[in-house]
Amino acid sequence: MIKKHVITGLVILLPLFLTLWILGALIQWLTGPCIGITETMLRAAGLQEKPFLFMNADAVLLHVSQLVAMVELIISVIIIGTLGRHYLLRPLATLSDAVIHKIPLIGSIYSTTHDLINALTSHDASAFHNVVLVPFPNADCYSIGLVTSEGPVASHLVPVFIPATPNPLHGYVLLFKRSQIVTLDMSVEEAFRCIISCGALLSQSPIQQQPAAQRSALS
Fold first, then answer.
1. DSSP 3-state assignment of 45?
2. Is the model's pLDDT at 26 over the cut of 80?
3. Cα 208 from chain centroid?
């Protein structure tokens, strides 16, 4: 009985703790570059001498500095985005892109990350087209994959990203023949939930209309 209560408590609390931990790590990473300047400004205002509740003065200074730095970052992003949408920074952005692309190593990293972020944030097209099953790692088993593009190197080949479990940020990009691909009636979000949960959250996803050979291979 106690074991069941412990498991139930973990199921309730772990998602909350993990969410807070991820948010805390993200905030710390984003505010890291400006935390020193913010702490200097707050020390000048005398905040380092003011404890609050169970936190000492140093802890208060750190958390307030992170909060102020996060607000400054959000305001800066909004201002840059507003100017960029009104084409005021477009010539400057074009010039900086041209300069950065010419720097060895840094240019290739910047170009790759720039294209990836554009693909993930584009409103015109989704980064992944649909969820499929592909014969991987061998012809006797299938893996969940995500079609990344409909315009591959060859017209009869389709690039498919096969995420790793439980970390979908790692995986393989392979080219498959169209006849090898089995399309699933599953959203990209459902596929990621299935992958992250190691298949525990696999939903009932009927196979879309496939050739007879593919249907018989899966049956």
1. coil
2. yes
3. 27
Task: State residue 128 phi and psi, 5-degree precision.
Answer: -125, 135
DSSP state, residue 207: B
pTM value is 0.51
> In the numeric block, which tokens belong to residue 141?
């088993």
Nearest-angstrom CA–CA distance, 50 and 176: 63
Rounded distance between C-alpha atoms, residue 6 and residue 92, angstroms = 57
Phi, psi of 171 (to 5 degrees): 165, -160
Report which of 152, 134, 154, 155 is spatially closest to residue 144, judged by C-alpha positions: 134
Amino acid code (one letter) for 148: T
- Has residue 17 got a pLDDT over 80? yes
| Closest listed residue to residue 176, CA positions, set 132, 207, 114 | 132
List, in order, residues 6 or more apart from 52 with CB less than 8 Å away: 60
Phi (first) and psi of residue 176, to 5 degrees: -120, 150
